Amino acid sequence: MSDKRKRYILPEEEIPHYWYNIQADMVNKPMPPLHPKTKQPLKAEDLYPIFAEELCRQELNQTDAWIEIPEEVREMYKYYRSTPLVRAYGLEKALGTPAHIYFKNESVSPIGSHKLNSALAQAYYCKQEGVTNITTETGAGQWGAALSYAAKVFGLEAAVYQVKISYEQKPYRRSIMQTFGAQVTPSPSMSTRAGKDILTAHPNYQGSLGTAISEAIELAQMTPNCKYTLGSVLSHVTLHQTIIGLEAEKQMEMAGEYPDVVIGCFGGGSNFGGISFPFMRHNILEGKKTRFVAAEPASCPKLTRGKFQYDFGDEAGYTPLLPMFTLGHNFAPAHIHAGGLRYHGAGVIVSQLLKDKLMEAVDIQQLESFEAGCLFAQAEGIIPAPESCHAIAAAIREANQCKETGEEKVILFNLSGHGLIDMASYDKYLAGDLVNYSLTDEDIQKNLDEIGNLEK
Amino acid sequence: MSDKRKRYILPEEEIPHYWYNIQADMVNKPMPPLHPKTKQPLKAEDLYPIFAEELCRQELNQTDAWIEIPEEVREMYKYYRSTPLVRAYGLEKALGTPAHIYFKNESVSPIGSHKLNSALAQAYYCKQEGVTNITTETGAGQWGAALSYAAKVFGLEAAVYQVKISYEQKPYRRSIMQTFGAQVTPSPSMSTRAGKDILTAHPNYQGSLGTAISEAIELAQMTPNCKYTLGSVLSHVTLHQTIIGLEAEKQMEMAGEYPDVVIGCFGGGSNFGGISFPFMRHNILEGKKTRFVAAEPASCPKLTRGKFQYDFGDEAGYTPLLPMFTLGHNFAPAHIHAGGLRYHGAGVIVSQLLKDKLMEAVDIQQLESFEAGCLFAQAEGIIPAPESCHAIAAAIREANQCKETGEEKVILFNLSGHGLIDMASYDKYLAGDLVNYSLTDEDIQKNLDEIGNLEK
Question: Which residues of chain B lie closer than 8 angstroms to A426, CB-CB?
Answer without folding.
Answer: 175-176, 179
